[in-house]
Amino acid sequence: MEQVGGGEGASPEPSDVRNDLSGQVAGPAIQAGAIHGDVSITMTGPLPVAEHTDEALAEELRRSSQIWRARFSSVDLVNLPRVAMLTQGNAVAAAARRAGLDSTRPFGGQGMAPGEFVRIVRPLFETWDAEAVTLCERTAEKVHRGLLVSFESAMRCNNPPEVPLKEPTGVLTKDPHLVFPVGARKVIITFDPRWLTTATANTTLHVAAREPLVVSGIGTVASVSEEGNIRISALVFGQPETLAQAQFDYAKRSVLPDPPGLTWADFRNELSRSELSQLYGDQLPGRETVSRKSIALLFDEDKVFPGQIDRDVLTQVSRVAPEYRRDLGMAVASLLFDGNGVAAADLAAHFLAREPALLKSLTVPGLTTLIRSCNLAVATVSGLSEGQTVDLHEAMREAVTSYLGYVEADRKLPLHERLLPVHDEYHIVGAELRLVYSAARRALDEANGEDLEAPLDEWRQRGLFSCVEWEEDLEQSAAEQKEASMIMEAWLNAQSE
Q1: How many of the other CB atoms lie within 10 Å of CB of 221?
Q2: Are strands 177-182 and 432-437 parallel, antiparallel or unpaired?
Q3: Domain ranges of the chain
């Protein structure tokens, strides 16, 4: 039988057929050849790399998103018509109405109203809930048109606007814009100069044409060029408040002597990325200590439903505190800073300052704004290590929009003793959750016909803990019994007289 293309003695005849695709195919190439009568197939070139799917990219950007808030020394631009399209735009529109602005017209020619608007709107941006992707080297290569992003950097202004302020032409070489680098990419912030808030804002941009100024803000991605350069259409921007400005503002408003332990660190802008690393840098060395802390977590009470803070805190505590090391107490209450005429800045300083310094994320300027503008609630958690405290803060920041920050609790401080809850409502031991009660409270619940199993069932259904039971606070029960005995004795004495 004639042997074709096989056997050891067979040799393939030369072929005139050329591989016209040789060296032209991107990716791996398949080669087939006859070796000792068998067909051998090999793959050459790099292995295929799985590309990001749209879903994976969207999920990655979602994880990169965070709540954008800013403490401005000056709010230089607010594009009212476009800000109104955001969920949080209602508060800005309300501020415009309070200031007497006609929000259908740019700020120019509206007298004193724009200045009043800036005064009202500045603290709003400190408590905003706008969720945006932070523009940095890690996210710059992933952003796309229409994405809401936040930015902060030293920037230069090209083509600073001239009076009278005019609508943009759409030609970048003519229109005013801010420019700054993110890694190897160039970022261009375009804006409508008619929505600059004041004449001072325009002057600031002329200064930025001569020297870089730090600008922080939020906007939507208008385009990404083939070279990777990013153009952003600004909604809001301004200059972040500096430490020196915060200290000066406190000095103007304060009427009480400075509390012991008040330092420059208490006036840093914790909402500014440029100061954030410094803020945590002073606290991170304490993560290795084993001392247990009590902390007070602050919340915007207007943004929560009854019981929501309890659920949020216990959920995150179960994430950051290892089960075998849990022996924690927790309570939730409203936080009422009734100063009786004392300045909010003084209340904030005396709540946060101590010698030695308290572990905290809150600052005096930040808490001052919260006292003035929010109804506050507090959750106290005792028994955490310093490392767990910082981890809990990070977890709360990522997962809970109503969360505002924390400070270490010290019952020896007068404001802490007066404002923070005295008794725990929950006791977390290992995998168990114990709902704490006192004898007087139990008697009242029974008298009112309360279903004592309902709270236990609610927590059991959530599945966070393997066991949920009641636990009596014997110390509190004894104190209540003693107080009741004293009241009864006083009543009997009054009857006998």
Answers
A1: 19
A2: unpaired
A3: 56-240, 253-430, 442-496
The closest of 297, 244, 258, 314 to 455, measured between CA atoms, is 314
Tally of CA atoms within 13 A in the half-sphere of 156 that contains its CB: 8
Nearest to 144 by CA among 72, 60, 77: 60
Residue 393 burial (10 A CB sphere; 0-12, 13-18, 19+) = buried
pLDDT at residue 11 tops 50: no
Q: How many other CB atoms are found less than 10 A from the CB of residue 114?
A: 25
Task: Read off the DSSP letter of residue 285.
Answer: G
Check whether 60 has a pLDDT greater than 90: no
pLDDT at residue 53 in the model: 60
Burial readout 87-111 (b: 16 or more C-beta within 10 A, e: otherwise): ebbebbeebbeebebebeebbbebe
CA–CA dist 106, 471 (Å, integer) = 62
Tens-digit pLDDT profile for residues 344-369:
999 999 999 999 999 999 999 999 99
Q: Which CATH code, of 2.40.50.110, 3.40.1190.20, 1.10.340.30, 3.20.20.70, is assigned to 56-240?
A: 2.40.50.110
Sign of CA dihedral 156, 160, 166, 170: negative
Query: Could you tell me where the beta strands, DSSP code E, fall in 323-455?
Result: 327-335, 376-385, 403-408, 426-429, 432-437
pTM given for the model: 0.79
CA distances to 21, 136, 302, 364, 385 from 306, in Å = 69, 38, 11, 28, 28
Q: How far apart are CA 423 and CA 436, in angstroms?
A: 9
The strand pair at 467-472 and 432-437 is best described as parallel
Which sign, positive or negative, has the C-alpha torsion 457, 458, 463, 466?
A: negative
Residue 134 belongs to what H/E stretch?
A: strand 130-134
Query: What is the tens place of the pLDDT at every residue in 157-168?
Result: 999 999 999 999
Give CA 75 to chain center in angstroms. Answer: 20
On the question of pLDDT at 7 being above 50, the answer is: no
Q: At what angle do helices 386-399 and 308-320 cross, to 10 degrees?
A: 130
Is residue 50 scored above 60 in pLDDT? no
Per the document, the length of the chain is 497
User: What tens digit of pLDDT does each residue of 71-126 get?
Assistant: 999 999 999 999 988 888 899 999 999 999 998 899 988 999 999 999 999 999 99
Question: If you search the block for the tokens 């009480």, which residue do you land on?
Answer: 256
Which residues, 6+ apart, have CB-to-CB distance to 356 below 8 Å? 261
Q: Could you tell me which residue, 153 or 25, shows the higher pLDDT?
A: 153
